[in-house]
Amino acid sequence: MNIATLESITITSDPHNIAQVESFIEEVREKYNVADDAFGNILISLTEAANNAIIHGNGCDPSKTVEISVTPDERGKNLTFAVKDQGKGFDYNNLADPTAPENIDKPCGRGVFLMMQLADLVVFSGNGSTVEMKFRI
Questions:
Q1: Can you say whether residue 59 is alpha, beta or left, with left for phi > 0 and alpha for psi between -120 and 50 degrees?
Q2: Hey, how many other C-beta atoms are within 10 angstroms of the C-beta on 64?
Q3: Domain extents for the chain?
Q4: Which of 24, 36, 43, 46 is surrounded by the fewest CB atoms within 10 Å?
């Protein structure tokens, strides 16, 4: 998905900056009149993606940033969010199934699964250092 970015936020790779992401999503909600169910899906998916970018992508290195952008479609019925880190990426085609019995008790490994369940479309690029998620609003 190649989309011209209309609005974005850039944060440093500190897990405490997730609060800024949540504020950004609230602003998007107000501007585009996002329905409650879509808002919940966007909030969970974007905070998971931002956490993954900060922790796994950038290794919590405060000199690295995470960029989050949102672009509405031409009819205003969908929003596409992109989350990009400065890491080397990951193999998004070979992730452990978090619902498998051996993984149920693990404290991590559910973020990508949640994004795939909650977004209408998820596309990884840049070896996995960028994730784009589309939501019907």
A1: left
A2: 16
A3: 7-136
A4: 36
What is the pTM for the complete model shown? 0.89
What kind of fold does domain 7-136 have according to CATH? Heat Shock Protein 90 (3.30.565)
Closest CA to 32 of 3, 50, 7, 5: 7
Nearest-angstrom CA–CA distance, 45 and 18: 12
Q: pLDDT class for 6, splitting at 50, 70, 90?
A: low
Contacts of 95 (CB under 8 A, 6+ apart): 109, 112, 113
Burial 108-124 (b: 16+ CB within 10 A, else e): eeebbbbbeebbeebeb
Output the pLDDT for position 107. Answer: 66
Q: What is the pLDDT of residue 4?
A: 41
Query: Token pair 């909650």 is at which residue?
Result: 118
* Contact (CB, 8 A) for 93 and 127: no
Q: Could you say which DSSP state residue 51 is in?
A: H
Read off the pLDDT of each residue in 33-40 and give the average, rounded to a whole number: 96
